[in-house]
Amino acid sequence: xxxxxxxxxxxxxxxxxxxxxxxxxxxxxxxxxxxxxxxxxxxxxxxxxxxxxxxxxxxxxxxxxxxxxxxxxxxxxxxxxxxxxxxxxxxxxxxxxxxxxxxxxxxxxxxxxxxxxxxxxxxxxxxxxxxxxxxxxxxxxxxxxxxxxxxxxxxxxxxxxxxxxxxxxxxxxxxxxxxxxxxxxxxxxxxxxxxxxxxxxxxxxxxxxxxxxxxxxxxxxxxxxxxxxxxxxxxxxxxxxxxxxxxxxxxxxxxxxxxxxxxxxxxxxxxxxxxxxxxxxxxxxxxxxxxxxxxxxxxxxxxxxxxxxxxxxxxxxxxxxxxxxxxxxxxxxxxxxxxxxxxxxxxxxxxxxxxxxxxxxxxxxxxxxxxxxxxxxxxxxxxxxxxxxxxxxxxxxxxxxxxxxxxxxxxxxxxxxxxxxxxxxxxxxxxxxxxxxxxxxxxxxxxxxxxxxxxxxxxxxxxxxxxxxxxxxxxxxxxxxxxxxxxxxxxxxxxxxxxxxxxxxxxxxxxxxxxxxxxxxxxxxxxxxxxxxxxxxxxxxxxxxxxxxxxxxxxxxxxxxxxxxxxxxxxxxxxxxxxxxxxxxxxxxxxxxxxxxxxxxxxxxxxxxxxxxxxxxxxxxxxxxxxxxxxxxxxxxxxxxxxxxxxxxxxxxxxxxxxxxxxxx
Amino acid sequence: xxxxxxxxxxxxxxxxxxxxxxxxxxxxxxxxxxxxxxxxxxxxxxxxxxxxxxxxxxxxxxxxxxxxxxxxxxxxxxxxxxxxxxxxxxxxx
Lengths: 665, 93
Description:
The complex is a heterodimer. Chain A is an alpha/beta fold. Helices cover 60% and strands 6% of the residues of chain A.
């Protein structure tokens, strides 16, 4: 939680009033987050608590003096449930997370108040100043539901304000009431009452203030029934889900391409500018290749993340996602995962970063951890260039086989993810999944502003992460591959001398000689760098996969990001780093030889490398995001060890099997 | 949602998954484990309350007051129900 501004002083010496901290509490789907956004706008930040995968958003509402610091707690159904989010709310209200809040704001859906009132009774029992916000007052009014706020306030012993987070109705009243709130004074039901007695008390409160509970939303809604039946139907529901998800990812791929290219170009220009301004040397290398290159490689995913979260927020707001979770639960529960895990898994096909971040849709902590751990197995777009290269080597001239191999890679990744999830749920994350009981929220028109705010928030979190952990890791990896600087090899010096001699008579030949010299120099640099030396050291480890020293360096550099593998191989094979020309890279790699003159990429090596790249964890930004989402380095370490270990075993088995089959053929 | 009055005609408890859609039933959660029971209670479905079954199958969709809940087949099979108002009576009313 952010540090409150205790005893801060303005420059003139006037004391700045300490913000009044308000805990925002409510059931899920009561419009709590929309109300939070209405109160705080963009002045919010997201905080993780140690050892927790859940986040709390904290925002500043400057409409009152002193300002309000609003803490948006996770939506809960009950304060006493043995669930992480209920525990977090209890800890917050008891002051175990930071300070005890100055007040509690309980958000209740005015169209279905009973459950919210039960939570409000539990909150008021904490003896903190409490205010009840009857949200969706506009919707209630449209449905002809009337309520007497004063009567309900009298019964509950705390102020009640009718508001609409969407339209802003009642927000000023709410802020003023929160500023002046005092602990409740009413005869609320005792905690030892039976459920039936407590329910009767709540029914009475509603009857007195809202014309009776049956008057609230009791009309039979056949359209909702029909929609629910269709959206959760085993066949129709699945067809709708496939169409919705297909549309979602088509939109992401269609829309994200342009800003991604733009980011690429911008950083390229920025890098060029920096290279022109900063004198040649280590600082320029660090700035251009390390910092700017590192940030560019990560920020390029920002458009995908923004669009994904915007669309997911819209979908969630419509109420559809809760129905979709049931459709996928039939498949996912066989592997110990809930239906909600499908969205992160599917998102990971685009990129594991947004996939892992969208695992927040999964309510249970263990389910969420299992989802995060296995999501990077899904084949992301960064693997595509490697698949193209290796499948091209394996099935050159056989487009059908190549197509099957492509599909096989995707299937292998998905199967590894699901089986790993099953294993995780039976070993390191034991226990039953949370029972699949979900509230099916009303179908609503989604709020674009709320979706934009969610997208903005997720984007900020990602940028913050990219600017700290990811950037740090990328710089270290760049340094390992760029230093120490190797001396220019004699062969390169000789070629350059030759180029100077022939430049006047045969400029094309001179250019070719220069290019050859560059390649030799690059090879020498790769071999002499720390990464190259580590490659020498690690080669025996990758020998069972068919890798020689050069290939080992390629594999090691690809741990920075998988797509680096293709350009690394091109460079290491002396082809420069022009990876746009797929055919020439393919030919270069196909012609690559081992020191003994044998073909480097024979069938066994190409097949083992393909399996290795399908399964291995080779994406540092993904590990950094996993750490952020899980709040600990333990989970990314496990993710790395499991995925890479499994990849090594599977690839070694493939190498040995294909070799054995080639030998017996 | 009202607390059900048990009568001689609705003594037979059947799994929720076997109840016809459109009827109103009294819910019995005493065969659920404590965690599942408290979760359902917090969501407004507690032992002895009356709900309307909107859809059977997976999920089983219940309506209590203005709230609609989807209950996975595994949990629904462990929830027992006694019929209070049949689907046909519900339609006539």
